[in-house]
Sequence to fold (247 residues):
Amino acid sequence: MPKLVLSMDGLVLKEMVLGKERTTIGRKPDNDIQIDNLAISGHHAVITCITNDAFLEDQNSTNGTYLNGQPVKKNVLRNNDVIELGKYRIKFIVDDAKPGLAPSEMIETAAFKAFEMARAVTETAVPPAPPPSDTQILSAAARQAGVAAAAATAAVAAGEGMGVIQVLSGANAGRELLLTKSLTTLGKPGRQVAVITRRPHGYFITHVEGASFPLVNGNAIDAQARPLRDHDIIEIAGVKMEFFLRG
Fold:
């Protein structure tokens, strides 16, 4: 489980395990990590944990939040990252992190090229291959469909509905993505990115990157994870899609 180590001038002040979905940092006493210093805003920053990922977000603080020396608004945290708040340092440590593999790189996504979804990363590095032929593409698609169908069947057998995203606009209109993994990234890096998480009590969407928040049924979501309901219409990076449950 990830933990935070708070220090100042090399002296460790506090260690805290990230056991909550949201951990707040600031000067006021209602924060999970209180730093009683005038350089720290009342509610300075927040760390949100979603399955294997953690995200740092500045809460419009007066003096800003820095990650490894760079100012950030919202960013994925990686093992050994250092958060800087004035003279204070908070080190993010993942005890069971795999060397060289950032939490965000473990996100499983679908290959909707035009929508620029992140690629899935596997344990074994594979050298770049030449462009596949039409036959290979169809064959790979058939294999993927078979795996997805098996996962969907297992979910139905367990009495659950399998979440599905269907793209409604853009170059990939009509395509579907089965939400079989615990965490799926959608969007366009550098513009707007969100994640959909699969939890025991349903599916949730959370904003990750971008100045504007994704829309659900025409309304912008906030910084909190928002539950998704059958036939919700999502808009991310200008692309509309529908979330529904396939029973």
